[in-house]
Amino acid sequence: MISVVQPGTLDYATGLRLQQQLVALRKEGKIGDVLLLLEHTPVITLGRNAKASNVVASPEFLQQRGVELFECDRGGDVTFHGPGQIVGYPIFDLRGFATPDGKRKTLGVIEFVRRMEDVLMRTCADFTIPTKRVAGLTGVWTNPEFTSNHVAADPPVRPIEAKLAAIGVHISRFVTSHGFALNVNTDLSYFNLIVPCGITTKPVTSMHKELGRELGLNSVAEAISRNFGVVFQSQMLWVDTLDAVLGTACRAGAPLADCVP
Questions:
Q1: What is the pLDDT of residues 115-131, one digit of tens each?
Q2: Rounded distance, CA 47 to CA 169, Å?
Q3: Does pTM top 0.70 for this prediction?
């Protein structure tokens, strides 16, 4: 069983502390697997492999736009999180998931990432957005060969894939943290502040841009949860409060920051 929690909109530091607390409890076996689905206030994060030069905006301009800057221990390069984007943090013990062939009882990191890509591709398909994987690159990309929004040219110009979702994870003693960011109604101008994931040849897009309309974040979150259940062959249990998962003495209605050490 995977518990799903939607803690709302968090600044990145609070979200990171929450992940760390859940990871510690999961390692101790005090909680089961948890999927956090949330939004962040505007923030640029640099993963373990990030190049500082991929943040092209100056610190002064970032401050002017109200964008924080954080280094973190996830894999990958530079990315942006902000309103209109669903960020997913699976806190899973990979020893509970066997490989598809059943030969190993513990899921490997590559297989875990591929499963998350599968979840997000299924979710985009639920909203009629065709997607694909791109060889050598992590994440979920549009499949322009199956859309009509590119113009025919002579000689033919191969349409370019655009990134809908970024993935970067950290695994410690088989327990996962960090995860994915799916651009739903995201203001894509924020990505001009960085070289997203260090990739200069492919643009970033959103579900809103691909469909030409705004989507309800709750409906997308529900699709994500449903597809996690399918891909990870688990029952998904939505819980209303954080303390229902943490089992802490958080008083009812307390701000999230008061519940996270």
A1: 999 999 999 999 999 99
A2: 9
A3: yes
